[in-house]
């Protein structure tokens, strides 16, 4: 298939592009910068210049493709409302372009806060609705198009998609450990995050695009890891002591990520595995920490 990928040069997107190409798909990648365009071209990817605010480019990329994988996000932590609005309008534009085609549209989402009482499942609807909510409520918006001739799949990613060179959430926690000379967890360390290796996440995106029915939610979650376990693994890797930080001091210690590190952000993936035969095979998060995946942080 001809697949249009937003976020094609990003952390998950670049691995997804590689997986798509290895399976014989033709890929067009949205490129915001010259560096991204060069990297995509070197892989044999057709480049479409633009960003999430360029709605004309998004519509053109979708209309000229047989499938769309939307992985881009501004991730502007200083202006989340702008990120949320951009995400909603981008998803609406991509969805509108595919109405009546029965073509697949994979939309990235997350596992955070699906349920207040434990791990969320694929059956749990996203609690985020409307432009002012997390990610602009884009998951719920996209799923409305399943009844309008779009094969929408919501791909919910674990809060940490890890691997060598990861600059995501765990890298901020490692950087705080280096800065303070101690590896910390929040409170009693009993909360947990789901995690998945980057290669497994990419493979799930491609498999869902090829095979998942419209209106499906899939979970890229291979395991759940306790926050204290994460801190202890970081402590071993850096050879620094491990300590607890009070919840009210978490942001001062970790920076913005401190507002999230003490939260339970987990989800199961049983339904995803059964539906698609997805079987994660990559290293675990603790293995990656031990093997130096965050030495750059």
Automatic annotation (TrEMBL):
Recorded GO MF terms: aldehyde dehydrogenase (NAD+) activity
An example Gene Ontology CC term for this record: cytoplasm
Domain NAD-dependent epimerase/dehydratase: from-to ranges: 3-80
SUPFAM superfamilies reported in the protein's UniProt record: NAD(P)-binding Rossmann-fold domains (SSF51735)
Coiled coil: none
Family matches, as InterPro entries: Epimerase_deHydtase, NAD(P)-bd_dom_sf, NAD(P)-dependent_oxidoreduct
Identification of the protein by name: NAD-dependent epimerase/dehydratase domain-containing protein
UniProt source species: Gordonia soli NBRC 108243
């Amino acid at each position: 298939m001809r697949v249009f990928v937003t976020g094609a040069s990003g952390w998950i997107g670049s691995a997804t592009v590689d997986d798509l190409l290895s399976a014989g798909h033709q890929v067009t990648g949205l490129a915001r910068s010259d560096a991204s365009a060069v990297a995509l071209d070197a892989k044999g990817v057709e480049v479409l210049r633009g960003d999430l605010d360029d709605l004309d480019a998004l519509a053109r990329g979708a209309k000229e493709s047989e499938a769309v994988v939307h992985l881009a996000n501004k991730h502007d932590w200083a202006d989340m409302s702008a990120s949320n609005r951009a995400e909603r309008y981008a998803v609406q534009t991509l969805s509108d372009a595919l109405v009546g085609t029965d073509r697949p549209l994979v939309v990235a989402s997350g596992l955070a806060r699906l349920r207040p009482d434990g791990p969320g499942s694929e059956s749990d609807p996203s609690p985020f609705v409307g432009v002012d909510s997390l990610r602009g409520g884009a998951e719920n918006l996209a799923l409305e198009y399943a009844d309008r001739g779009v094969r929408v799949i919501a791909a919910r990613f674990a809060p940490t998609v890890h691997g060598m060179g990861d600059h995501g959430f765990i890298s901020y926690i490692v950087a705080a450990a280096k800065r303070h000379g101690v590896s910390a967890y929040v409170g009693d360390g009993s909360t947990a995050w789901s995690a998945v290796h980057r290669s497994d996440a990419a493979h799930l995106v491609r498999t869902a695009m090829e095979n998942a029915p419209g209106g499906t939610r899939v979970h890229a979650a291979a395991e759940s890891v306790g926050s204290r376990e994460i801190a202890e693994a970081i402590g071993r890797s850096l050879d620094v002591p491990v300590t607890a930080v009070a919840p009210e001091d978490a942001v001062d210690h970790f920076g913005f990520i401190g507002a999230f590190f003490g939260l339970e952000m987990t989800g199961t993936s049983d339904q995803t595995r059964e539906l698609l035969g997805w079987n994660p095979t990559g290293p675990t998060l603790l293995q990656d920490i031990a093997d130096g995946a965050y030495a750059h942080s």
